[in-house]
Design a protein that fits this description.
The chain has 181 residues and is α+β, with helices and mostly antiparallel strands. The chain is built from 8 helices and 3 strands; from the N terminus they run H-H-H-E-E-E-H-H-H-H-H. The chain has a 3-stranded antiparallel beta sheet. Helix 1 crosses helix 5 and helix 6 crosses helix 7.
């Protein structure tokens, strides 16, 4: 219950995209966007080979594009359907080669990728003034969670974001993360 409110607001999300995009390949930005859009665990993010299915729906007479992706969460041994609908997420989905990883690295490089991604997240949290790198935090603080569960913070944030933009639709949002609401 201590960490239930750990999340990023819209301006913090934009700032993280800016900080992450400072590296040349834009890999960290791509990972962050898909990570926040889907709320998957870090292991899933680094190992998934997504196939994005393009969909179009009419909203008030206007065509709106979105993507559906099925994601297998190994920890839960369950397949979850995720929706990709931000402009940045749709751009990634549109240009992704189906069935390939988001990063194009070998399995032996994934542990290094995970560590680099976690470090980028921590730097972003520091840049936002949410925590300090050199400080050791008490386990019962939000700062400890940001420092020690850096990637899971994105999962929390994704759920909060989806709840907010869906008008608190518990059934739809929970179906993307858990077997039962």
């Amino acid at each position: 219950s201590i960490f239930r409110d750990v999340r990023l607001n819209d301006s913090q999300l934009e700032r993280i995209k800016d900080v992450a995009s400072q590296e040349e390949s834009n890999l960290m930005t791509k990972m962050f966007i898909i990570h926040h859009e889907t709320g998957v665990r870090l292991d899933t993010l680094c190992n998934m080979r997504p196939v994005f299915h393009r969909k179009v729906t009419l909203v008030d007479g206007k065509e709106c594009e979105y993507f559906i992706v099925d994601v297998f969460e190994k920890k839960q041994d369950e397949l979850f359907q995720k929706i990709i609908f931000t402009p940045e997420g749709r751009e990634i989905a549109r240009n992704h080669i189906s069935g390939t990883s988001l990063h194009g690295m070998s399995d032996s490089e994934i542990p290094t990728l995970k560590q680099e991604y976690l470090e980028v997240l921590r730097v972003c949290y520091q840049d936002l003034g949410m925590m300090k790198s050199e400080k050791e935090y008490d386990r019962k603080t939000k700062e400890w969670y940001l420092q020690n569960r850096s990637s899971h913070t994105i999962r929390h944030s994704s759920v909060h974001w989806l709840m907010r933009i869906s008008g608190n639709n518990i059934a739809d949002v929970s179906s993307m993360f858990w077997e039962t609401p």
